[in-house]
């Protein structure tokens, strides 16, 4: 398969290098000229990094999302930029999204929904979300999550390229920094497994419902996991209960302080009581 895709892989690698080399060159130039990366350069570097990740697509946007919650690794200005990747990615056309919904659900849009927002209410690395009303006679509001077109093929090529890059990097580390024991290839492999799992929205729906049921049975108060409409979920479309709210990162400090104890209790119950937990609780996923 990869032999047949060699041209596409080379093209993808060239695009990646075209983004990475200018950015790294700027970093090295600043370091050589000033002896360090001065704080005044951090905002513009961070913005450029975020734009480059967006241009590179879903795989790299996901990596940026992962780093957006790491204040132990990155400065605040960089975290502020990468946070925009959580739900502020450039969306794809709604016409394409509607066609994907109809193809996945097996019928015209009106068969399932009486209305759907003209534009997505949020767009992230793998999908975008629309506000819709179910055609159930009750005007039930739902969130319709639609996977980006061709994302599986794009992610597969990116991961193939990144794995080859990781192998080269691993060889350099073993030669020039043998004291460094991290296995970067194994680390990328593990991340890739989780990434592929995220591309199956039917699996995500089952996990969401399992978490919802578990927290209810555990008697956790103050936390709501949206209900999933199983009959309308496929590998590329997820329909769940609509929740009104404000992103955690946009809440007032006193609100955050109030819900911290509730969130801690819920998470510790998931981790130690249920043995099944939400592994991506960034502010874009919490209202």
Give me the secondary-structure topology:
Blueprint: H1 6-34, H2 42-56, H3 58-67, H4 76-83, H5 94-105, H6 109-112, E1 113-116, E2 122-123, E3 127-134, E4 141-147, H7 151-176, H8 184-198, H9 201-217, E5 237-241, H10 253-274
Antiparallel strand pairs: 1-3, 2-3, 3-4, 4-5
Give the gist of this structure:
The chain has 287 residues and is α+β, with helices and mostly antiparallel strands.
Which keywords apply here?
single chain, alpha+beta, globular
Description:
By secondary structure, this protein is α+β, with helices and mostly antiparallel strands. It contains 10 helices and 5 strands, in the order H-H-H-H-H-H-E-E-E-E-H-H-H-E-H. The protein has helices at residues 6-34, 42-56, 58-67, 76-83, 94-105, 109-112, 151-176, 184-198, 201-217, 253-274; strands at residues 113-116, 122-123, 127-134, 141-147, 237-241. Strands 1, 2, 3, 4 and 5 form a 5-stranded antiparallel β-sheet that branches. Strand 3 (127-134) and strand 4 (141-147) form a beta hairpin. The radius of gyration is 21 Å and the shape is globular. The termini are far apart. The mean pLDDT is 90.
């Amino acid at each position: 398969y990869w032999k047949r895709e060699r041209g596409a892989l080379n093209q993808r690698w060239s695009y990646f290098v075209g983004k990475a080399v200018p950015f790294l060159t700027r970093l090295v130039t600043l370091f050589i000229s000033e002896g360090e990366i001065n704080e005044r350069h951090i905002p513009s570097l961070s913005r450029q990094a975020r734009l480059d990740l967006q241009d590179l697509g879903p795989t790299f946007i996901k990596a940026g999302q992962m780093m957006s919650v790491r204040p132990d690794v990155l400065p605040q200005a960089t975290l502020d930029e990468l946070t925009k990747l959580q739900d502020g990615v450039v969306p794809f056309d709604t016409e394409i999204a509607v066609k994907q919904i109809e193809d996945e659900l097996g019928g015209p849009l009106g068969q399932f929904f009486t209305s759907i927002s003209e534009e997505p209410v949020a767009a992230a690395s793998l999908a975008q979300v629309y506000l819709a009303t179910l055609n159930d006679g009750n005007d039930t509001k739902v969130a319709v999550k639609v996977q980006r077109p061709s994302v599986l093929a794009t992610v597969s090529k990116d991961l193939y390229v990144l794995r080859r890059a990781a192998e080269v990097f691993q060889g350099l580390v073993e030669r020039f920094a043998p004291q460094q024991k991290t296995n970067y290839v194994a680390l990328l492999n593990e991340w890739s497994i989780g990434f592929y799992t995220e591309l199956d929205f039917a699996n995500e729906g089952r996990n969401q419902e399992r978490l919802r049921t578990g927290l209810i049975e555990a008697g956790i108060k103050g936390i709501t996991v949206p209900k999933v409409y199983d009959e309308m979920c496929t590998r590329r479309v997820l329909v769940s209960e609509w929740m009104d709210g404000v992103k955690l990162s946009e809440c007032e400090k006193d609100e955050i302080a109030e819900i911290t104890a509730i969130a801690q209790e819920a998470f510790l119950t998931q981790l130690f009581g249920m043995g099944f937990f939400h592994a991506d609780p960034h502010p874009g996923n919490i209202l």
